[in-house]
Amino acid sequence: MSKLSRRSWLRATGLASAAGAIAGAARARGQDSGLPAAHPPHDSHVMGVVGRVAPDGLKPSVYLRSWNFSELPADERAKFYRETPRPDGTLLREYEFFAADREIEIAPGLFFPAWTYNGQVPGPTIRATEGDRVRVTFRNLGTHPHSIHFHGWHPPAMDGALPGQEVQPRETVVYEFDADPFGVHLYHCHTVPLKRHIHKGLYGAFIVDPRTPRPPADELVMVMNAFDTNFDVENEVYAVNTIAHAYMYEPIRVTVGRLVRIYLVNMTEFDPVNSLHLHGMFFDVFRTGTSLTPSDRTDTLMLCQGERAILETTFRYPGAFMFHAHQTEFAELGWMGLFRAEEVSGT
Amino acid sequence: MTRRLLLAVLPLLLLGGLLALIARSDPADMLRGDGYPPVERLTVQRVTLEPGGIVARVMNDGPDEVTIAQVQVDDAFWTFTADNGVALRHLGRTTLRIPYPWVAGDAHVVRLLSSTGATFEREIPVAVETPTPSARFFGVFTLIGLYVGVVPVALGLLWFPFLTRLSARAMDFLLALTVGLLAFLLVDGAQEGFEAAAVLPESFQGPVLFALAAAGAYLLLEGIGAWLKSRRASADEGYRGWVLAVLIAVGIGLHNFGEGLAIGSAFALGEAALGTLLIVGFTLHNTTEGLAIVAPLARARQAVSLGGLVQLGLIGGVPTIAGAWLGGFVYSPIWSVLFLAVGVGAIAQVIGQIVRQMSREGSAARMLATRPVLTGLAAGFAVMYVTGMLVG
After folding, report:
1. DSSP states of B214-236 as a string?
2. CA-to-CA dists, residue A252 to A62, A328, A339, A343, angstroms
3. Which of A46, A70, A131, B214 could make a disulfide contact with B345, Cβ separation 3.0–4.6 Å?
């Protein structure tokens, strides 16, 4: 008699033996429409987010080509970044970092209570040349203890992760070390519980250039990240540079024939690996960027949590080129974008 | 007079003042403080699958306003439109239209993300295009209703000529059997109703709603029964038997309405491809309901015309068809709760009526303790139990 038990019965056995009258009716219906059920077109435009993020929030297109606060006007930039030549020809690079709680819009209308470095996720990109002195003054303006832990050579006192190295709210510490080795690295908060401090947004890219610079290129910083919006230890939103599908609606403009270099960092929490796949092209891979010789040429690169690589390629054709995680689930949950390659007029 | 009115209204005025004070000072906000996260709760009331995609009817049954920021289907952001906006106040509703290419026979999960990142999921266990009210589907649901409701009840009624030839003791047995059958329906309907009530949005207070509807139905039928009898002050036994039969038919009809709802909605939700065995089970099960309707008439040795029997059969059986229609086309869980409750109230009233009729000469307890009655009760319960196994 019970509705639910009947339903479960229906589920278990109903599909096998349909009553004549009903099956007949269903068949007749199928014949009517020609197909079992008509569907909306498999149009790629119906997949994706609805609306656009507010223009006063994070700007993934600006982040992409900014380092050492280069996106700020000169006087503003001086508050956060100074470089001083040293006798040996290297630079002392000084950074002002602070931690702050901030609600960020990670998909249109969807707000995440983030913990940020300098109000942004990912944090500001630090870029130095091998041998430079990096000095980061870190003030914790947040509500929880935080730290900055840099990947790269440094003495234990500068690790930021060891017991007692947490920076309490309102406290300030200075991290100082030589930029070494060259490559693409990362920094992140190392206060426990670690995965919460990281997935809340406390991470960023740390690029060290070799003394002999790499060839000139159009350089892009991409941090693969994700957000667990309901705190169930699974990500609801994936992205490169925080905002879901941002580069689908604002494609990355590149030039045909010009070398493009991508500094790719995987900061995804909870999922062991992430990946980048580029349509219609191949790229050279410099794992961790610590060599000037490519380790691979491929169109799909997988990175573990905390892994990173430099990718180099040159667009051969004009037009739109999609790039996304080849974990298609991540792609459809926000980690998907477009390059738009254009010919330079006169060439 | 005005003084009395004032005395009646005064507490209400003071209450209004208190509410205004609370609204102004908002003690809950003082408790929660700044930045305290809102309590968000969304319920997907009904999901239908159309050729153009998925349609989800959503209600906010939490205390705070909820804004639906994005929709994900099967772990993919999907575009959608909202008929009634995406910002829902307490008890606000909207309809989301999601052009998702669902796959017949597959399972899907629709997930709503609020502006704070809270998620609300609704599973579609087996995707089947939701029937729309077309002539064909009315036909199909009518056919189902006939199979499981009308025909079995009518078959049960055909026992009437046989019943009228039975001895008084056998009649006691039969009436007790009827009570056993109804008691089974009472227990089953109550359990079912509370289960359905548990999945309702909390604001609807499902269990209370169920209890109120059941009590209301009981009292209403009690009133109708008394009114029917009072129309003939010198009601003879035959007429009383007829009234009782009508009441039983009404009770069973209401119960069958709830049953039809369940069948129709299961069919519509894609959880059902009704099997032959299920049809057979319902047919056997519901035939006993016809028996229950005519037993009091037989005991009263009341002559009933064929037309009268047809009337009783229609009252008891036809609601299954209406239920299947409603369940198939506009199902929402609240209907299940309401109609199961009404069915339970009606059946309880009918059981009371039969017991009163049987024990007219003495106490109900003594009447119940006789052997034919006890065996009848047990047999009635057992028959329902065994035939119930076929469908559950």
Report:
1. HHHHHHHHHHHHHHHHHHSTT--
2. 10, 21, 5, 14
3. B214
Angle between helices B306-317 and B276-299 (to 10 degrees): 130
CATH, domain range A60-342: 2.60.40.420
Name the β-bridge partners of A209: A129
Annotated domain spans of chain B: 42-124, 135-391
Q: What is the DSSP string of A273-324?
A: EEEEEETT--EEEEETT--SS-SEEESEEEEETT-EEEEEEE--S-EEEEEE
Token output for A313: 């390629």
Asked if the C-beta of B129 comes within 8 angstroms of chain A's C-beta atoms, the answer is yes
What backbone phi and psi angles, to 5 degrees, belong to B356? Answer: -60, -45
Q: Which pLDDT band holds residue A314 (cuts at 50, 70, 90)?
A: very high
Q: Is B11 on the interface with A (CB under 8 A)?
A: no
Backbone φ and ψ for A207, nearest 5 degrees, come out as -105, 130
- Parallel, antiparallel, or unpaired for β A237-240 and A296-298? unpaired
Is residue B304 a contact partner of residue B158, using CB atoms and an 8 Å limit?
no
Q: What is the pLDDT of residues A145-176, one digit of tens each?
A: 999 999 999 999 999 999 999 999 999 999 99
Q: How far is A41 from chain B (nearest CA, A)?
A: 7
Q: What amino acid is encoded at B60 in this protein? A: N
What is the residue type of A242? Answer: T
- Per-residue tokens: A310: 């430099």
Q: Quick one: pLDDT band at residue B279, thresholds 50, 70, 90?
A: low
For tokens 């050492």, what's the residue?
A: A68
Nearest CA in chain A to B262: A3
Q: Is the pLDDT of residue A33 over 50?
A: no
Distance (Å, whole) CA A83 – CA A86? 10
CB–CB contact A230 B392 (8 Å)? no
**Which token pair is B314?**
């229609």
Please indicate if any CB of chain A lies within 8 Å of the CB of B289: no
d(CA A166, CA A193): 12
Reduced to 3 states (helix: H, G, I; strand: E, B; else coil), residue B137 is: helix
Digit-coded pLDDT (tens) for B307-328: 888 888 888 888 888 888 887 7
A22 closest CB neighbour out of B72, B140, B196: B140
**Neighbouring residues of B92: CB distance < 8 A, sequence distance ≥ 6:** B59, B60, B65, B84
Distance from CA of A21 to the nearest CA of B (A): 8
Query: Whole-model pTM?
Result: 0.77
DSSP state at residue B202: G
Contact of A198 with A148, CB cutoff 8 Å: no
Residue pair A184/A169 in contact by the 8 Å Cβ criterion:
no
SS3 state at B199? coil
| The residue count for chain A | 347
Q: Where are the domains of chain A?
A: 60-342
Model ipTM value:
0.81
Two tokens at A156? 């234990």
Helix (H, G, I), strand (E, B) or coil at A1: coil
Q: Is B67 in contact with B114 (CB distance < 8 Å)?
A: yes
pLDDT at site B353: 77
Tokens of B357: 């009729």
Summarised one tens digit per residue, pLDDT across range A253-304 is 999 999 999 999 999 999 999 999 999 999 999 999 999 999 999 999 999 9
pLDDT at B236: 64
Q: Is A28 on the interface with B (CB under 8 A)?
A: yes
Closest by CA to B91, choosing from B113, B59, B56, B119, is B59
Give the span between the Cα atoms of B392 and B381, in whole angstroms. 16
Closest CA to A128 of A81, A190, A171: A81
Q: In sequence order, which ranges of B237-318 are alpha helices (DSSP H)?
A: 237-268, 276-299, 306-317
DSSP letter assigned to residue B343: H
